[in-house]
């Protein structure tokens, strides 16, 4: 049995002298206060699809929650992705991700996570969310260099199949493997940040790891983020 690594809470992480360091952080529940990505998928389903698709997604909330809770985080997210995105044109998903979602994400940034994340010179997001959905926000508002996220399968006609590319939804060991592939064995991030047990594998290979506890905090004012013109 492997050694269980304990992580300090994010409030104990100093943000001083981090300019030359690298941080890798989860998104939902870590960089964002909310642990759920459902509202963003709902917006995508309605804006990119239709009102009926949004209603279908809403009707399946109990099923998604049960599978997420009782089966696995990965399985729940797969269903969320399929119902929300199957059949949508990739260019429509990209458009909504550039024009609609960033303003929603920007209203929910966690202050302690942003304090640490913004102090680092190189910033990466490691997330179960589809990369295409979150990339415009995290690059333009949070200054992330790259998103290590779930990749969607796309048809030759440029539509999302509703399924994801291998290795699958970016959770657990897949996050760890993505970080290892990006940084190698010896140049791992200085700081790893997460909020749940499935973040522990990638956090454990970082030089420092910090958990973001579930608690009520005020969101970072949008004026404090990198892009607040919209």
Keywords:
two-stranded antiparallel sheet, single chain, 230 residues, 11 helices, six-stranded parallel β-sheet, alpha/beta, globular, Rossmann fold
Helix and strand arrangement:
Blueprint: E1 8-9, E2 22-25, H1 27-31, H2 38-49, H3 51-59, H4 61-71, H5 73-85, H6 90-99, H7 101-106, H8 111-117, E3 122-130, H9 131-140, E4 146-150, E5 152-154, E6 160-164, H10 173-183, E7 191-194, H11 200-204, E8 208-211
Helix pairs in contact: 2-3, 2-5, 4-5, 6-9
Percent of residues in helices: 40-55%
**What's the CATH architecture name?**
3-Layer(aba) Sandwich
Strand content: 15-25%
Strand order of the largest sheet: 1-8-7-2-3-4
List the secondary-structure elements in sequence, H or E: EEHHHHHHHHEHEEEHEHE
The beta-strand count equals 8
Main β sheet profile: 6 strands, parallel
Q: How many angstroms separate the termini? A: 50 Å
Predict the CATH topology: Rossmann fold
Bulk shape: globular
Question: Helix tally?
Answer: 11
- Rg, rounded, reads 17 Å
The chain-level mean pLDDT equals 94
Low-confidence stretches: none
CATH superfamily: HAD superfamily/HAD-like
By CATH reckoning, the class would read Alpha Beta
